[in-house]
Amino acid sequence: MVEQCIWAIGNISADSVHVRDMLNSMGAIDNMMVVYPKINSHKERYPTWVWAISNLCRGVPQPDIHQVIKPAQHFIEALQKRPNFEVLNDSVWALTNIVMTINAQEIMDVRIASYQAIGPALTEPETFASITSAISNSYHMMNIQIPLIRLLGNVAYMDNSNTDRMFKLNVMTHLMPLFALNNMQVTRDLIWTLSNFAVGSEDVVSAIVSNDPLIEHIFLHADCHSPMVKKEVFWVLSNLTRKATLAQVH
Known about the structure:
By secondary structure, the chain is mainly α.
């Protein structure tokens, strides 16, 4: 019965954001959290739970941050378990959407409190290693590469300290090979993520500017036929020039 109810919640919440919000207001996430200890021990049921609760965190307009922040730690734990593709995909999309919801908060106290609940955990070495491992192990899987890249970009947007930690953990080593995929959506999201990195600390900006292969990729895509990619390229360059030294700019 429990598994059927979870399936029902997952399917119904995917119908529309109106239904999603109605379910969240009725305590759907709270009830899903209650059954988690039992579900977590069942390999067959766990993927269904992750999929269903991830649907409660998706959509535009974004859901209530006070609701979707609740399962965030469980999605992080799911990443650390090195899950199968199905669980990985749902967990990454859920975390990406949760972080985007945090970044969209206009009330600063709410945004700060939400960030403190999840932000540092996402750049903790074990979690970050799980994210970068997923990037390396799903090289040609666009439907997982895109949310992984967006997750990193949104985490960088949250706070400059996140970007500092990611660069200390060699984030670009894992992202650079993705340029070779020559996939326009992946490239657009990569350069968008770089634009968020580029508003980081002076150390991060120096690391980007001194990375000759990376700078070559950025300028190469300035001549791209995609307006969306070009737009992100110029945001990268604009952001870099704010903190780069005159010698670095030249």
